[in-house]
Amino acid sequence: MNLTPFSSPPRRIAVLASGRGSNLQALLDAIDAGTLDADIVGVFSDKPQAPVLQRVPEALRWSRDAKLYPQRVDFDADLAAAIASTQPDWVVCAGYLRILDAAFVQRFHGRLLNIHPSLLPKYRGLRTHIRALAAGDREHGVSVHFVTPDLDAGAVIAQAVVAVDAQDDADSLAARVLQAEHPLLLAVVRLAVAGRIAEQDATAQLDGHTLFTPLQLDCTGHLARSGA
Ligand code: GRF
Predict the structure, then answer these.
(1) Closest of 113, 147, 138, 142 to residue 128, by C-alpha
(2) In a mutational test of the pocket of ligand 1, which residue from 178, 182, 185, 186 has the highest number of ligand atoms less than 8 Å from its CB?
(3) Least packed by Cβ within 10 Å: which of 37, 111, 174, 184?
(4) Which of 16, 18, 20, 23 to mutate to test the pocket of ligand 1 (most atoms within 8 A of CB)?
């Protein structure tokens, strides 16, 4: 089944999440404050007990226990059908802790965003904070990227850099990265609902031009071209 065309403006957002949902909350707070012109059309989870679901009214929640499905492809097909029925312009993975199968990614191609707590291409996958500390990195951070079938490998749209302190452990570093996640996700979603970003030929585009390096979040919460 094909997706409906983008709305004008493309402000319908479906969110996928498995856990606490602080990134979703950042979007909800901005919508409430009138600083993000978007509609959350559904929150989708592989974990029926996930706290994230409680952040939206029941009518917007969809969850199934992914472990009860015989195969990933079966769960992802149900998930995709449920998401498509809400006619989203964008599908935002915000702490969604399952790998999406290739058919799912293909179906939402060009509309599927993910927030990942590392400066991609460094540290795809899990345990990013521990790996950054073990490598002795002085800088760590977070990326928002288009999703492709390969894990955390799609075109990066924007990043926020977080300095690593000598005293950091994985928890303290994760907490500071999380503080950067919320404004970064918000800033990219603002671009998305304004119709300013797109994925083309495995690159991220801003206003119709290829982003050769990710946008960088500055200390005022705005995105700038790197080096600008
Ligand atoms: C964030 O660190 C996100 O980058 C990672 O999972 C966490 C989700 O946090 N993929 P929350 O559920 O949005 O609070």
Answers:
(1) 142
(2) 178
(3) 37
(4) 23
Each residue of 115-131: pLDDT tens digit?
999 999 999 999 999 99
Instruction: Give 177-204 pLDDT, tens digit per residue.
Output: 999 999 999 999 999 999 999 999 999 9
Instruction: Tell me, yes or no, if the pTM score tops 0.85.
Output: yes
Identity of the amino acid at 223 = L
Closest CA to 88 of 137, 15, 147: 15
Distance CA 176, CA 164 (A): 9
Q: How far apart are CA 30 and CA 149, in angstroms?
A: 30
Catalytic residue numbers read: 116
Cα separation, 214 vs 187, whole angstroms: 13
Strand arrangement of the beta sheet that strand 209-210 belongs to: 197-200, 203-206, 209-210
131, 162 contact by CB (below 8 A): no
